[in-house]
């Protein structure tokens, strides 16, 4: 592996600045593997589909808005079934594991992996690993069949159970090898995908014919590269209930304030989209956009102005917002959970108390403030119709890739087309709301709230978003325009 721990980059260069960030294949480290006819060609469900198999040269562009003089840029391999597969149906022994926090849609992904393997590829040996990564060596497994998973999509949570941490790579790969498993489907967030990458590297080192496939999960929608993560639509929809309750409470009393804390450890997508969808929110605070409480242009001044105008207000805050302010006032030391995530202080409770204290002591106003935290209610519900469809596409794209011999990749939509993405691309950074982007401007226009940003902050944010060209430094000197380059 490279010093950064991202393994090898498998790059293919073409004309006009075309770069394919390809994913590993079993034949990269196990040469001369036999191929087989894809059983889908005899599947009656697909008999009427024209050109069902994906062309081997199909790729998906990471950027679709370009200038006429722009290079063709970065592409990813398009997901979908191939004409030739590297596993025969009766030799496949697959396993599924869920890791990290709960998220709507987990059971739907499990169901569609099992049903897809069984109904499309005739696979009969599928195991569920209980309790996350440590379940490989410390818990029991359960047999998964289409019948046993038939209605699990109607339930929240995960039938396999989950946990954080528990990643002992050698023990996990030993268990995979001992059980004869040759397809591993890992559902989880950033930390889970990093773990999956390490598992793949160890399997590659041992020369095992095992496909390792990641399915990215984060309710916060902060997975890099992909358009969105499953469970996000459901979370935004469910957040409306909490915002509506806060609105009803606040407008029913004098000087009413409803404070709603939504998920978003590092990224404020749920808070932003829920605010835009609701239209009842007066102010939205997210981790990407710093704010301050006192003084001209501060939050307290805005709250006072809005109360004078309307007599009530609703404030939505993402859980990761204002953490520096809380840590400063409480002298809090950084701590992490088992997944390496920073443990956050409750910004909702802290902010609610700060607001009440300010108006009671400095303004002599008694507020009727209601604080609502729907976090665990949102995480635990089944996915909605939109997410159910999306989870189906994710699961089927994942198993098509594994059957075609691809490994060491995660799957997701890029500009609306499902793609196979190297692990390092979804773990090297996190998606965040771009506060210099039009979407955040739309929110500010909708709520008519101040941005709380100084001109210097805006300029700094703009400079951070100005990326160089998509070609790597020094690329012109070393690339082979017609071949594959492995960069360690």
Automatic annotation (TrEMBL):
State a GO cellular component annotated for this protein: cytosol
Active site residues of this protein: 220
Q: In which pathway does it act?
A: Carbohydrate degradation; glycolysis; D-glyceraldehyde 3-phosphate and glycerone phosphate from D-glucose: step 3/4
Which family does this protein fall into?
Answer: Belongs to the phosphofructokinase type A (PFKA) family. PPi-dependent PFK group II subfamily. Atypical ATP-dependent clade 'X' sub-subfamily.
User: EC number(s) for this protein?
Assistant: 2.7.1.11
Query: In which compartments does the protein localize?
Result: Cytoplasm
- What biological processes does GO assign it? fructose 6-phosphate metabolic process
Q: Name one GO molecular function term.
A: ATP binding
All copies of domain Phosphofructokinase, residue ranges: 95-400
The UniProt regions of compositional bias labelled Basic and acidic residues, in chain numbering, are 457-468
This one is known as ATP-dependent 6-phosphofructokinase
Q: Which organism is it from?
A: Platanthera zijinensis
Q: Which InterPro entries match?
A: ATP_PFK, PFKA, Phosphofructokinase_dom, PKF_sf, PyroP-dep_PFK_TP0108
UniProt: ATP binding residues: 101, 164-165, 189-192
Function text: Catalyzes the phosphorylation of D-fructose 6-phosphate to fructose 1,6-bisphosphate by ATP, the first committing step of glycolysis.
Q: Which UniProt keywords apply?
A: Allosteric enzyme, ATP-binding, Cytoplasm, Glycolysis, Kinase, Magnesium, Metal-binding, Nucleotide-binding, Transferase
Among its keywords, does the record have Zinc? no
Highest lineage ranks of the organism?
A: Eukaryota, Viridiplantae, Streptophyta, Embryophyta, Tracheophyta
The UniProt entry, under Gene3D superfamilies, shows: 3.40.50.450
């Amino acid at each position: 592996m490279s010093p950064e721990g991202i393994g090898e980059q498998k790059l293919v260069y073409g004309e006009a600045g075309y770069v394919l960030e390809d994913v590993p294949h079993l034949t990269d480290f196990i040469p001369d593997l036999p191929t087989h006819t894809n059983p889908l060609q005899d599947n009656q469900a697909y008999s009427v589909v024209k050109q069902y198999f994906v062309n081997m040269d199909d790729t998906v562009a990471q950027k679709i808005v370009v200038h006429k003089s722009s290079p063709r840029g970065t592409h990813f391999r398009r997901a979908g079934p191939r004409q030739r597969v590297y596993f025969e149906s009766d030799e496949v022994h697959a396993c599924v594991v869920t890791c990290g926090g709960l998220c709507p849609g987990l059971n739907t992904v499990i169901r569609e992996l099992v049903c897809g393997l069984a109904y499309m590829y005739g696979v009969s040996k599928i195991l569920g690993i209980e309790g996350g990564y440590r379940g490989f060596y410390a818990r029991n497994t359960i047999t998964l069949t289409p019948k046993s998973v038939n209605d699990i999509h109607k339930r929240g949570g995960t039938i396999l159970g989950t946990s954080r941490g528990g990643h002992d790579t050698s023990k996990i790969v030993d268990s995979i090898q001992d059980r004869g498993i040759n397809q591993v489907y890992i559902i989880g967030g950033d930390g889970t995908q990093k773990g999956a990458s390490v598992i793949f590297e160890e399997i590659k080192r041992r020369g095992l014919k095992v496909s390792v496939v990641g399915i990215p999960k984060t309710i916060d929608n902060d997975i890099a590269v992909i358009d969105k993560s499953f469970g996000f639509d459901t979370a935004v929809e469910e957040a409306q209930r909490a915002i509506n309750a806060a609105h009803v409470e606040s407008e029913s009393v004098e000087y009413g304030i409803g404070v709603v804390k939504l998920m978003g450890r590092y990224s404020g997508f749920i808070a932003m989209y829920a605010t835009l969808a609701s239209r009842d929110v007066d102010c939205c605070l997210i981790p990407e956009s710093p704010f301050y409480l006192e003084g001209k242009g501060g939050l307290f001044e805005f709250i006072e102005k809005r109360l004078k105008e309307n007599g009530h207000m609703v404030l939505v805050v993402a859980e990761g917002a204002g953490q520096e302010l809380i840590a400063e006032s409480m002298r809090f030391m950084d701590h992490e959970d088992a997944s390496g995530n920073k443990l956050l202080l409750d910004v909702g409770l802290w902010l609610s108390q700060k607001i009440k204290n300010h108006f009671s002591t400095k303004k002599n106003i008694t507020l009727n403030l209601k604080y609502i935290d729907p976090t665990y209610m949102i995480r635990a519900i089944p996915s909605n119709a939109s997410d159910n469809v999306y989870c189906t596409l994710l699961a089927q794209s994942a198993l098509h890739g594994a059957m075609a011999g691809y490994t060491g990749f995660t799957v997701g939509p890029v500009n609306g087309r499902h793609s196979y993405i190297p692990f390092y691309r979804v773990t090297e950074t996190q998606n965040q709301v771009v506060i210099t982007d039009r979407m955040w401007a739309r929110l500010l226009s909708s709520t008519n709230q101040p941005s709380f940003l100084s001109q210097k902050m805006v300029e700094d944010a703009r400079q951070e978003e100005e990326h160089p060209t998509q070609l790597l430094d020094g690329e012109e000197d070393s690339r082979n325009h017609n071949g594959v380059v492995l960069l360690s």
